[in-house]
Amino acid sequence: MSDPLHIGRGGHRTWLKWHRGRRKASDPVFTAKRILEAMRLGASVEVDLVIHADHGCAVLHDKSLDRETTGSGLVRDASAETLRRLHLRGNDGTPLPDRVLLLDDLCDLLAKNPPHPDALLQLDFKEDLAALDPLTVENFAFAVSSLTNSLILSGGAFDAISLLANSAPGLMIGYDPCYGASLDRLKATGDHMSFIKGALDTAPAAGIIYLHHDIILAADQAGFDMIGAVHDGGRKVDAWTIGNANPTTIPKVTRLLELKVDQITTDDPEGLAAAFDQ
């Protein structure tokens, strides 16, 4: 089997994004080994960022350390030195040999192991504008400055994303509108067109719009092509997040492929690629 990078259907290529650095569903999240492998192969891969006490970012999803690491308390209160001593936990909670990565560490590793030209690492920023201060912005810019061609910064707080991106010229950006007021309005009104127009208007510089796959498929059931509407606006669509390949997820992915989604975020790229190779 070839490496799980993308699926081709009807002349359209849909990338498989390695969610939290996973190649397959059994992988632990955010390990340097898998992230570097993905970037070497030319994959699309995603990691999350939260702010730590020394005005930098840790490669973690939660703002608390308890679930993902051997630490406890808030990431915001932990120093860089403390975080680097912590180990990641596996899917069953067992401590792993792999240590927590900081954004600086990850960028240093990528500088020493240059990514494939097709590789794209999504930095999904889990904080809002209020969490940013000038030193955190400065440190972010320093960390990513030599790798901007291989990175895309995303999040649901587009003002925060814009501030960080403006500090690092050439950095691509994406936007996820599937949170907060815009999503609440969509649920209340069912007005899919207004939802997408709002997303495109909010984030005019975003090259990729990240949409929950259930929202895309619900709009499709209602007769509205949400992916086509984003394409008409000159952007690409990432559908998130498909877990493992199974009889429930395969029909969803099939429809997303028919709708020509540009990218699917999944915890199981290997499983999905194998299912559709058959």
From TrEMBL:
It comes from the Bacteria. Gene3D superfamilies: Phosphatidylinositol (PI) phosphodiesterase. SUPFAM superfamilies: PLC-like phosphodiesterases. GO terms for biological process: lipid metabolic process. One of its GO terms (molecular function) is phosphoric diester hydrolase activity. Residues 31-270 form the GP-PDE domain. Pfam families: GDPD. This is Glycerophosphodiester phosphodiesterase.
